[in-house]
């Protein structure tokens, strides 16, 4: 994913910049083409292989468009709101603490 250069600095310095961390996993046996849409500030377009996982940043109103290719043919694109893909991070314990339990 690429951020526009002016927004990259804004993300680093401005706490009011609204973005969310999102997660998508290709649980199909087919390639998926994913594209971030309804977002002027962020760009994302890539191919996900079967069982590949991806974390990305988006604005809450963005959507992830997923096209699954089956037998060399592209299927109908599916759209998922990025706020439904949002990762909720708990600040109560660190990653290493969660592995120990």
- Helical fraction: 10-25%
Radius of gyration: 16 Å
Q: Count up the helices.
A: 2
Please tell me what the overall shape is.
globular
Q: Tell how many strands the DSSP assignment holds.
A: 9
Uncertain segments of ≥5 residues (pLDDT<50)?
A: 1-8
Q: How large is the share of residues in beta strands?
A: 35-45%
Taken in chain order, the helices and strands follow as EHEEEEEEEEH
Biggest sheet record: 5 strands, antiparallel
Question: What is the overall pLDDT average?
Answer: 78
Tell me the structural class. mainly beta
Roughly how many Å apart are the termini?
33 Å
Account of the protein in words:
The structure is a single chain. The strands form 3 sheets. Strands 3, 5, 7, 8 and 9 form a 5-stranded antiparallel beta sheet that branches. Strands 1-4 form a two-stranded antiparallel sheet. It has helices at residues 5-13, 95-100; strands spanning 2-3, 20-25, 32-37, 42-43, 45-48, 53-58, 63-70, 73-74, 78-81. 10% of the residues are buried. The protein has 101 residues and is mainly beta. It is globular and about 45 Å long. Strand 7 (63-70) and strand 8 (73-74) form a beta hairpin. The model is unreliable at 1-8 (pLDDT under 50). It has 2 helices and 9 strands, in the order E-H-E-E-E-E-E-E-E-E-H.
Keywords:
single chain, 101 residues, mainly beta, 5-stranded antiparallel beta sheet, 2 helices, disordered N terminus
